[in-house]
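Input chain follows. Return structure tokens only.
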Amino acid sequence: MRRAFLALVLAIACAGSAAAHYCAAPLADWQPREALQKKLETDGWSDIAIRIEDGCYLAHASNARGERLHGKFDPVTLAPLPGGGRHHHHHDGDGDDGPFHPDHE
């Protein structure tokens, strides 16, 4: 029974560790930061700052309403990553919240 418990704890620890690192693609496969910046500008982000965190792109910006935005993105596909930042669902009633949400700190 003790072995089964230890195996379960180890499996959970490994799964948690894998979930914390979303991006493991080789740098040669990454799209340039400029590609992410253009994508985000098209989605209404401005004053964009992009850095690398856990092998992913992490972007901070603002939108036309002055809200701070923050998200983590796959460097190969530029897709937003779930749980990749402080994504809070914001509903302003216009029906178009998109995949990017304000950062309410």
